[in-house]
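re: ur question from earlier - yeah i can do the single chain one, its not a big deal. heres the input i used so u can compare w yours
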Amino acid sequence: MCLKKIHKSKSLLLSCFLGLAISTGGCGIIDKHVEWETIEPESYPVLKAVGYAPISSQHGESDSMKLIMAMKASKLDAYRELTEQVYGQKIEGNQSLSHLVIDSETLRASV
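and the output i got, formated as tokens:
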């Protein structure tokens, strides 16, 4: 009987010790303060891109609508070219073309 009491007291003491260790250890993680040092580069890169699309092949009721659609298509083409130059930014684009005429277009960007 005495052996069971000693075993229970050891278990209780161990449980208290573990509880104390976990509770004080958890507070240490929360109180950490991290300062990041930013280093400014000597020069910033300038990204340039050009996109092309034929005006006469675009869908539209008038010449001005075809011009606007060609501008959109060329802009998406330039965005695709820029994605080859950008590092660290996720850009997803989808464009359906049929004989260089836009059928559908989507562009998503996220950091």
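Residues 63-110 form one domain. not sure if urs matches, ping me
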